[in-house]
């Protein structure tokens, strides 16, 4: 009798493995790639994505984007306005089941983050109007960031190719040190953010 071998299911590469395989240009720079110096990332067109523990230059990192209220802002402004840092979760599209669940989970745990001095934001490529409707319907206590050009989404390696947003979460402290950068489902992103030291 012939014995058949079972084929192993392909595994999904982690974010760190995908970082080395894809090259994404950064925003607002046409210079040649700038290497990583020490533990601080310089922005350039072909830099690797930041990793947990890296300190980024928040000035210009991820470009300019809008809040759901239509106010223009930058990553540096968000960090400066926070007490101890920021938590930003990314979602593919407002008012879809997974995104509604994820936003609701961050809403339900909002006090856990603010007690630590962390400001919470949602980030997608949706328009301010779409995100304002989503925020209102879900009674979200935090602003939603609108990044239709994917500049900030891509800077953290959470952009789908050729277009789209990978669900995930990232967090930075006041010095712009990356505390968390992870892709995952609604539950996984909230659990990862709550588990930060």
Automatic annotation (TrEMBL):
<dbReference type="GO" id="GO:0005737">
    <property type="term" value="C:cytoplasm"/>
</dbReference>
<dbReference type="GO" id="GO:0034599">
    <property type="term" value="P:cellular response to oxidative stress"/>
</dbReference>
<dbReference type="GO" id="GO:0008379">
    <property type="term" value="F:thioredoxin peroxidase activity"/>
</dbReference>
<keyword id="KW-0676">Redox-active center</keyword>
<dbReference type="InterPro" id="IPR050924">
    <property type="entry name" value="Peroxiredoxin_BCP/PrxQ"/>
</dbReference>
<dbReference type="InterPro" id="IPR000866">
    <property type="entry name" value="AhpC/TSA"/>
</dbReference>
<keyword id="KW-1015">Disulfide bond</keyword>
<dbReference type="GO" id="GO:0045454">
    <property type="term" value="P:cell redox homeostasis"/>
</dbReference>
<keyword id="KW-0049">Antioxidant</keyword>
<keyword id="KW-0560">Oxidoreductase</keyword>
<comment type="similarity">
    <text>Belongs to the peroxiredoxin family. BCP/PrxQ subfamily.</text>
</comment>
<feature type="domain" description="Alkyl hydroperoxide reductase subunit C/ Thiol specific antioxidant">
    <location>
        <begin position="66"/>
        <end position="178"/>
    </location>
</feature>
<dbReference type="InterPro" id="IPR036249">
    <property type="entry name" value="Thioredoxin-like_sf"/>
</dbReference>
<protein>
    <recommendedName>
        <fullName>thioredoxin-dependent peroxiredoxin</fullName>
        <ecNumber>1.11.1.24</ecNumber>
    </recommendedName>
</protein>
<feature type="region of interest" description="Disordered">
    <location>
        <begin position="1"/>
        <end position="42"/>
    </location>
</feature>
<keyword id="KW-0575">Peroxidase</keyword>
<comment type="subunit">
    <text>Monomer.</text>
</comment>
<dbReference type="Pfam" id="PF00578">
    <property type="entry name" value="AhpC-TSA"/>
</dbReference>
<dbReference type="GO" id="GO:0005634">
    <property type="term" value="C:nucleus"/>
</dbReference>
<keyword id="KW-0539">Nucleus</keyword>
């Amino acid at each position: 009798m012939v014995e058949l071998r079972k084929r192993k299911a392909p595994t999904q590469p982690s974010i760190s493995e995908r970082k080395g395989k894809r090259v994404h240009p950064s925003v607002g720079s046409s210079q040649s790639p700038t290497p990583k110096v020490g533990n601080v990332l310089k922005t350039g067109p072909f830099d690797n994505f930041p990793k947990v523990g890296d300190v980024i230059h928040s000035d210009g990192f991820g470009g300019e984007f809008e809040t759901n209220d239509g106010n223009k802002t930058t990553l540096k402004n968000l960090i400066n306005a926070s007490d101890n840092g920021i938590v930003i979760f990314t979602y593919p599209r407002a008012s879809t089941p997974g995104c509604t669940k994820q936003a609701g989970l961050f809403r339900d745990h909002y006090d856990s983050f603010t007690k630590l001095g962390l400001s919470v934001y949602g980030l997608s490529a949706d328009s301010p109007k779409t995100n304002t409707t989503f925020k209102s319907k879900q009674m979200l206590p935090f602003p939603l960031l609108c990044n239709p050009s994917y500049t900030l989404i891509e800077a953290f390696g959470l952009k789908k190719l050729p277009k789209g947003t990978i669900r995930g979460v990232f967090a930075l402290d006041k010095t712009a040190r990356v505390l968390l950068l992870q892709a995952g489902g609604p539950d996984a992103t909230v659990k990862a953010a709550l588990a930060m030291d």
